[in-house]
Amino acid sequence: MSKTKEENVGVVREMRPRSEIDESSERQELERTWRAIPGLWGWLSNTNHKDIAMRYIVTAFIFFLLGGLEAALMRLQLSKPENTLLGPDLYNQIFTTHGTTMMFLFAVPILEGIGLYFVPMMVGTRNVSFPRLNAFGYYCYLLGGLFLYAGFLLNVGPDTGWFSYVPLAGPEFSPGKRVDIWAQMITFTEISALVGAVVIITTIFKQRVPGMSLNRLPLFVWSELVTSFMIIFAMPAVMMGSGMLAMDRLVSTHFFNPAEGGDAILYQHIFWFFGHPEVYIIFIPATGFVSTIIATFTRRETFGYLALVLSLIAVGFIGFGLWVHHMFATPLPQLGQSFFTGASMMIAIPNGVQIFCWLATLWGGKVNLKTPLLFVLGFVFIFVLGGLSGIVLASVPTDLQVHDTYFVVAHFHYVLIGGAVFPLFGALYYWFPKWTGRMMSEHLGKLNFWLLFAGFNLTFFPMHQLGLRGMPRRVYTYLPEMNWASFNLVATIGAGVMFLSVLTFLINVWVSRRSGAVAGANPWNAATLEWATESPAPAYNFIHPPAVNGRYPLWTRTAETPVVTGLSAERREVLLTSVVDALPQQRHELHGHSIWPLVTSFAVGVTLIFGIFTPWAYPVGSALMLLALYGWFWPKEGPKQYGTKEEQKLFFKHQTELSLRGQDPI
Amino acid sequence: MSASIKSLIKGWLSASTATLCLMLAGCTGPSTQSSVDPMGPQARHLSRLWWFFCYSLSAIFVIVVIVLLLSTYKGWRESRRALEDEHDEERPLIVPEPERERSMKRVVLGATLLTGLMLFVYLIMSFITGRAISSPLHAENVLTIEVKGHQWWWEARYSDPTPSRIFTTANEIHIPVGRPVMLKMTSTDVIHSFWVPNLMGKKDLIPGKDTTLMFQADRPGVYRGQCAEYCGLQHAHMAFIVVAESEEQFAAWREAQINPALEPQSDSEKRGQQVFLSSPCIMCHTVRGTQAGSLIGPDLTHVGSRQTIAAATLPNTRGHLSGWIVDSQSVKPGNRMPPNSLNPEDLQALLDYLQSLK
Amino acid sequence: MRLALTFIPLLVLFFLVSCEREQRNFRAAPPAARSESLTQSQIQPGQAYTPPQTKNPTEYKAYELSQGKQLYEQYNCSGCHFHGGGGIGPPLMDAKWIYGGDPQNVFQTVIEGRPNGMPSFRGKIPDAQVWQIVAYVRSMSGQVPKDASPGRSDSMNTRSEPEQLVEPTVTKQAGQPPSTVQSK
Q1: In this structure, is residue C84 part of a structural domain?
Q2: ipTM for the complex?
Q3: To pair with B136 at 20 to 30 A between CA atoms, which of A141, A441, B168, B272?
Q4: DSSP readout, A454-518?
Q5: Is residue C82 part of a domain?
Q6: B107/A360 CB distance under 8 A
Q7: pTM confidence score
Q8: What domains are defined for chain B?
């Protein structure tokens, strides 16, 4: 990789003679500083963003497989009328766990995980801003997921649907602890999502490599930025809703009890105020994948950068104004509902702009038809179909016919699987070389794609018909005289094909890890900074993070493009830059290994898990959390000294006089 | 053409044929509980709007897919051409031809404006249909029925200015053809949703609130509806039927329903009534004209005249009725009716009695 | 990988341990023609003996308790006992049990009826439902496991008939003839 030693961009070097600096010793020092401590202790105290992110991705994928098994069971039960495979109680638990797993334990964590992996690399830094907070988020997520599944296996899994409406989920009609487990699991996963969002935002704003002003941010980083802001505004709503539900059930509050002045619809408002932005939280990072993959595999800049960024931001805003379209069958005033029809249709405009820009990129580019791009093409087909069926749901009159039927099931699977899972598979194929240093098999990849595409359409397209012909959602069986059996059987067969597709993917991963072609640093000849370092990336990401001079750094850099040197290799140091223009500001040391995130997450776990059995868990758990935070924030050493006072003045003087060389206008 | 493009096109063709076949399979003949088989003016408006959406959105979809395939093909051809021009192949295009970029910008802008226009049209159509389906609110001869949702059956109360002409029935609603019907609905426990697709969209029944739904049937027939909001264990088996009949037939039915239960005639029916009144039946069910007056379960005063039992889960035949009485939990596990073991003669007498309650 | 291997046996352990509280049985055995009797008389020849403690497995199941609570309302137990505070009938929330507070005793009370106004529900309420009501009644005095006891009521909002429950102004002692009490 090209770099130059003569330009130190913004950082005063350590006071060592130039002759003593050579790359191999710096590399060794960096490796020593950044390496993961081996063993169980090292694993539990690791705070490197790549390791934490990979744990998110693997855990979320395991939950995806579990959710898929639940879906397979549902489809088997529904394959013929009056089937006796699953009784109503078990079926209700299974469909609730399927929805909860896919929405809370798979979609948001895996997309956030890929973001946590690549956002620091794409912005040219070594770790996220708050490494320990990042680890804490993962442990909360893991605890929440295990809690839910332990409940599911103990016959105390939730059975009121993934959105758990009251009064069905209230104290009178949902006895036992099932819904309480659901409500607390929500709290775990939302803490995790919020933490991830905060970490991503601060990393993006403050740790970009010099030259990466906001208008040069890669589109994937923009998508993660918008998603993170949406998470910050949306997640508290569901935490509040699930908290109020838990309180109604456990401590006799009456938030949703009409007899005492509460309102059953209030729950729906609070939940869907989160629920609708949630689906955009899932969709927007996937648009980031698509923009990235399309640019790489058409070997040109993505068409319409400004339009794409503005569309992302528009979706982020408008997405918060749509939630009532989930409640059109409730007795809300018609005029009010019509506003939400307007807003729900309006969001098709920024989404449409994105699709048009991507199509224009394909049109004007040089297309390299590899597996990641195939998945992106499949995404366009399926997501557009889903988006168009969304128009039917956005309009109040037609929604009154298809609401809560299999038409809705078809719609949201088209937009979620088409809009997020297809780009996700594309991203997994795309970034597998960076993670493992090996390429995935193209043949198996193409098989994977076609099986998924065919299986998906076979499964979910008939559901449009089923909904129009009267089949409601969440039914564990149906009567033979309804004539729904043939469509249901086709859907089950399609589910079988999807199962084969995922199996193909797993086989591909297994085979490629062992014997895939060795990938270099940049096998796809892509443009973003993560490809500027070896595959797999070293723990410190870049030995010298390259400054950027455009939106597609690896395509526009020359021999004279500067790199960041002088960051200390003896401690975990990153460069902080300004928010808008990424002008270098200061160096900052990050924490290394720490067991306190795990301990704190256990304290949170104790509070929330035992909280459903006794209110004493809250004061006791808070005390534990306080102790854990004491450990977390206990100061380790004094402040760092960077040379003498005079040298420090010089350091800051350099900053203000600094200008970046080799910058091409974009 | 390269293998990958060939396989791409082959794949698309087979996928789209399969999809088309499935689409066309949906266009079969009339059926009950189907929103694309409207039997009343509201449902017809909704169905029309649906088909307008279906056709125009499908056209848009086809256009987008064609553009997708064409762009991919064009881009693929570009990359083949660049391969021949060797040194061009690897260099990524970051400053594309300004002329072409400008024309693509114009196309994208045009497509966006067209999208906005289409959405505006959809919005207007949606408003118009919304107004159309709520127009009967101002009609004169509206028939009002009060519907209460229970876990997992429907209670319907036909009120009347004269209190002695009020009656309650369950799971089967009769309406006269050609007259607007207004349902005033609430729920006694959790949220349910009343949906009879042949006649109208759905409306939720929410505890603590009153909701209304207006519809009208234009043709006589039996239209099945089903609960459309997840309400617990037997949500799948909470259905009902709406019987639309002529005014005369409706009036006759109504008069029959107003009358208290027919007196048992034969010995078996008399014995059956005794069994009814001394079994758990009396704890939950009402038979007007006898001592049985509990309101927990469906009203059985005229159960013999209904077409279905167990919330339209089973046809109302002797065999199904006896199975339901003896072990309802095997039909609808989790429903509120417990199994009842009766000795065989008692059971037969009870069946005779219940079937006589026409 | 290592971590997965440590988790799997834990999960298997979970699997083997079933959660009694959450069991839901929809098909109870059909009611027997006659229910077993357990006498509770103070007068006995010879040595006094302590009557055996009986257990009602229904008390540990949250679903059954919630069903018992609904049945208590629907079968109009609240008509005499109100919501545990008593009225025409004695209170059920307190520690005073005229005919015994063991599950079997309460079961007998419901099935046989008792002097001074408690009707017999034999043949009218199936045994399985009686056990659910028994469990709920004992929960009113806090004798069931806390995590299984029924949640708060969403009551007094959704009735077929408008009904106002009035707090009884006179508490009744068992054994005295009931006087007329306003209940509407």
Answers
A1: yes
A2: 0.91
A3: B168
A4: HHHHHHHHHHHHHHHTTPBSS-S---GGGS-HHHHHHHHHHHHHHHHHHHHHHHHHHHHHHHSPB
A5: yes
A6: yes
A7: 0.90
A8: 32-84+100-258 (2.60.40.420), 267-356 (2.60.40.420)
